[in-house]
Amino acid sequence: MATNRTFTMLKPDAVEKRHIGAILDKISASGFRIVAMKLTQMTKGDAETFYAIHNERPFFGELVEYMTRGPIVAAVLEKENAVEDFRTLIGATNPADAAEGTIRKLYATSMGENAVHGSDSDENAAIESAFHFSGREIF
Ligand code: DAT
Ligand code: MG
């Protein structure tokens, strides 16, 4: 995986509220190219594995429940400096702290239901992309 790619999920709350189109539009308008994408639903096991780093945290059960309650849009995005620039585009984890115009400021409702995921490093972008997509699904 090249270092100019990141992985994102539009989380169940964003899909439920029909924000897929608006969020993808903002991502594209911000210079990211979608190189892989699908609507999918994580199993409990998937979510526990994906968020394993948080498994000792008090919110872990809620996080797994939330991430598995409905479909998500999983995607791989390409752009120069993709990981960092996408974290800037989505804003702070808690939407109350997110900058004006960021995806979380616009579409997230709370820390627990914050609309979108963005990888936090090139290494994790590669791991997370491979978790959801085979090589032939990434263009
Ligand atoms: P981010 O998604 O900004 O990378 P993270 O990796 O620290 O944030 O946490 C992963 C997700 O877990 C986050 O998007 C929402 C949830 N989460 C984190 N901290 C939380 C908290 N204190 N209370 C409830 N949910 C939390
Ligand atoms: Mg994170």
Automatic annotation (TrEMBL):
This is Nucleoside diphosphate kinase. Keywords: ATP-binding, Cytoplasm, Kinase, Magnesium, Metal-binding, Nucleotide metabolism, Nucleotide-binding, Phosphoprotein, Transferase. GO terms for molecular function: kinase activity. It comes from the Bacteria. The keyword Cell wall biogenesis/degradation does not apply. PANTHER family: NUCLEOSIDE DIPHOSPHATE KINASE, NUCLEOSIDE DIPHOSPHATE KINASE DDB_G0292928-RELATED. SUPFAM superfamilies: Nucleoside diphosphate kinase, NDK. Pfam families: NDK (PF00334). Belongs to the NDK family. Its cofactor is Mg(2+). Coiled coil: none annotated. It is found in: Cytoplasm. ATP binds at residues 11, 59, 87, 93, 104, 114. Residues 3-139 form the Nucleoside diphosphate kinase-like domain. It catalyses: a 2'-deoxyribonucleoside 5'-diphosphate + ATP = a 2'-deoxyribonucleoside 5'-triphosphate + ADP; a ribonucleoside 5'-diphosphate + ATP = a ribonucleoside 5'-triphosphate + ADP. Homotetramer. The active site is at 117 (pros-phosphohistidine intermediate). InterPro entries: NDK-like_dom, NDK-like_dom_sf, Nucleoside_diP_kinase. Major role in the synthesis of nucleoside triphosphates other than ATP. The ATP gamma phosphate is transferred to the NDP beta phosphate via a ping-pong mechanism, using a phosphorylated active-site intermediate. It comes from Hyunsoonleella aestuarii. It is an enzyme of class 2 (transferase). Its EC number is 2.7.4.6. Its main location: cytoplasm.
